[in-house]
Amino acid sequence: MKRHLVSAADLSRDDALLVLDTAEELAQLSGRAVKKLPTLRGRTVVNLFFEDSTRTKTSFEVAEKRLSADVINFSAKGSSVSKGESLKDTALTLQAMGADAVVIRHHASGAPARLAQSDWLHGSVINAGDGTHEHPTQALLDAFTMRRHLNPGSGKDLAGRRVTIVGDILHSRVARSNVHLLTTLGAQVTFVAPPTLLPIGIEQWPCEISYDLDSVLPKTDALMMLRVQRERMNAAFFPTEREYSRRYGLDGVRMAQLPEHAIVMHPGPMVRGMEITAEVADSPRCTVVEQVANGVSVRMAVLYLLLGGAVFADGPTEPARTDSVETAQ
Predict the structure, then answer these.
(1) 132 flagged as catalytic
(2) pTM of the model
């Protein structure tokens, strides 16, 4: 991976650790009076969102501005896309405006890859979520959060840690990116879901499958609950919400079955009372708000490495410098 971040599978262990370690350095900015770095001054980053987003879009915008980039927010609603303009013509327009990077969220799986493989843009492409395919920066911030709680200390991976991901695996780009990244970092991933919410061919994925949430809780280090994505469903995948919540929802009784050190995660938005109760969501063991904060640091790291110097294992060889973090007082 040289210029783009399209899939978590593109990241080697060294690539992923470089991002996480850089994010750890950049996270120091959040506690300082001046939170900005001049690293991307003069660079233009376009947030190209064809789907609604709160956390991801805002997180990228904050990350870009803290690195002093010029930010353009592009929404499909109210733009020429709503009049029928193609992705190619939109990309060519952005290129003509001098975009150095495009952060894209698209309803079609594979749209960021198509953009990255084309000659429509000369800058970097960062996948902010495409259909039911992937969401690599979410996986990175999840790994960052896990590492801080389970393996604190720069340079460490997640070897031997057991991560359980519960819910709508079928429609979850978060689950797909996490299974790639977490296994690269040495973690053992288990998916828990009803058979109807598991994708075809999942037996080929580097993970274990369980249909019984209670059986895996005592041996879980990090438990990630997923929202049921009804907006992507065109059929009934389970009998009732009450039945789903009874079998696959996390309440206080189930949380008590987790080891004392285990954390509860959620990529958001949470549906309280469905996959997670208010008691769990508001518990000190739940890292949802922390994940949002960590997302800014991780996305700063990705932008910093892609645009601010030389980055990944197979990219340019000159290491990116983070000593400018120390000057941002």
Answers:
(1) no
(2) 0.90
Q: For residue 253, what are the contacts with CB-CB under 8 A and spacing of at least 6?
A: none
Instruction: Look up residue 320 and give its two tokens.
Output: 């990116």
Which residue in 145, 227, 217 sits closest to 185, CA to CA?
145
For the stretch 27-68, pLDDT in tens is 988 778 888 999 999 999 999 999 888 889 999 999 999 999
Q: Which of 43, 57, 66, 105 is catalytic?
A: 105
- For residue 190 the two structure tokens come to 């288990």
176 is catalytic: no
Rounded CA separation 24/297 (Å): 7
Report pLDDT digits (tens) over 241-297: 888 899 999 999 999 999 999 999 999 889 898 899 999 999 999 999 999 999 999
In three-state secondary structure terms, 72 is strand
Contacts of 48 (CB under 8 A, 6+ apart): 74, 90, 94, 102, 103, 104, 105
Q: Which amino acid is at 68?
A: S
- Judged by DSSP in three states, 314 sits in coil
> How far, in Å, CA of 170 to CA of 175, rounded?
9
**Which member of 22, 39, 44, 56 is catalytic?**
56
Active-site residue, 105 included: yes
Active site residue 161: no
Distance CA 36, CA 296 (A): 12
DSSP string, 287-307: -HHHHHHHHHHHHHHHHHHHH
Domains of the chain, CATH where assigned: 8-135+290-318 (3.40.50.1370), 136-287 (3.40.50.1370)
CA nearest neighbour of 297 among 5, 26, 12: 26
Structure tokens that stand for 33 in this block:
């009076």
| Helix (H) or strand (E) run with residue 182 in it | helix 173-184
